[in-house]
Amino acid sequence: MAYLTLDRPKLQANFDHLEGLLGARGIDWGITTKLLCGNKLFLNEVIRLGRLELLDSRISNLRAIKELNPEAQTVYIKPPASALIEELVTWADVSFNTELETIRAISAEAVKQNKTHLIIIMIEMGDLREGVLREDIVAFYEQVFRLPNIRIIGIGTNLNCLNGVMPSEDKLIQLGLYKTIIELKNGVEIQWVSAGTTVTLPLLIAGGLPAAINHFRIGEALFFGQDLVHENTFEAMHDDVLELHAQVIELAEKPTTPSGVLGKNPFGQTAEGDAEGPSTSHRAILDVGYLDISPQYLTPVDPRLEVIGGSSDMLVLNVGDNEAGLEVGSYVTFRLKYMGALHLMNSPYIDKFVLDGSGEKISELPAPQPVGG
C-alpha cells in the first residue's frame, strides 16, 4: 500500500529556521495546519514543536487539536458558516470574520457558553476573496466593539489566495494605517496586524515588510520550505518533510504508442503517440491514482523516472531502460506540491507514518503520560 511520511528532524529544522527568522524581528506567528486534515499523528508532531497557536479551516480539525492539547490556542481561519456557530465557540478560541450578523451570533453563543471569543476582522486589500471593504472598516469596527463576550485582537488580510495578488510594502502599510485609525477612533489597542503568510516571507527577508505587520500565519513554508515568489526552496530549509512512497505492482517493457482505434479516456483526453522517441520503454505501474492525488503534483525523487499519467487507482511511470533497477515490489519516492499533499492527507487509502530520524516508522500516537505522581 502507498504511504506518506513526515520527517520529524526535517520538520524541526524548518520550524527552527522560521523561529529564528520571525523571532529576530519580534513577529508572532501561528502554524496553519489545514494541510494535515485533522490527522492526529501528524498534528502531534506540530504540537511537539512548542508553538501552540494553531490555525485551521475545519472545526473538526480544531477539535482534534484541543483533544491532543487543550492548552493550544485554536484559530478558525475563514468566515464561519452560521450553522457552525455553537461548535465554533466550543472549539475555536479565535476566528476570522467579515460579516456583522455572524459576529452577533458568535457573541450570543459566547454569552451562552460564558466565554470570551477572540476575533480578527479581515479586510479586503485587492485579492477579492474574503474581507470587509475598506470604506466600511471604521463603521464595522464600531459596531463590533459594542458586542458582549467578543474581543477584537487583530486586523488582517489574505493576499495571493484567489487572484494571485502579491503582498507589497504599499498594501501592508495601508493595512497598518487602518489599524491606527481604528485604535484612535475607538480608544482601543489592537494586538495583531495579521498579514503575513508563506508568500510574504520573501518581502520580510528583503527588508520590505512594514513594521506594523506583527503576525504571520505559516503552513507551506514549514512543510515544504517553499519560496512562492521565486518558486524555489528557501535557503537552509527542506522541501521533503512530506514524501509519498508508492509500490511497483507491474513492470514491463511496452510500446510507447497505443494501438487500436483511439477514443477519449475517462478524463476526456485522446492519447497521442511519441513519433520521435523510442518504440518501446520500460513502464512501471504503481499502487496510487487519482483517488489519492493528481499526477501533476508528483515529482519522482529519482530524475530517471517520468510520470506518464494515471487512472483512478494506478500511476504509470516511464522508467526508460530501468537504470534505476526497479522490480515488482520496489517503492518509488515522490516529492510533493502543497495541493498534492493535501489530497493525500485526505485520502483514507494512504497510510501515514512519522520518521523519527533513526529509521523507525511511527504509526501511532505516543501513550498518554500518567497525571500526578
From TrEMBL:
Signal peptide: none annotated. Residues 58-225 form the Alanine racemase N-terminal domain. The keyword Hydrolase does not apply. Its cofactor is pyridoxal 5'-phosphate. Residues 257-279 are annotated as: Disordered. It comes from the Bacteria. Keywords: Isomerase, Pyridoxal phosphate. Gene3D superfamilies: Alanine racemase (3.20.20.10). InterPro entries: Ala_racemase, Ala_racemase_N, PLP-binding_barrel. This is Alanine racemase. It comes from Deinococcus aerophilus.
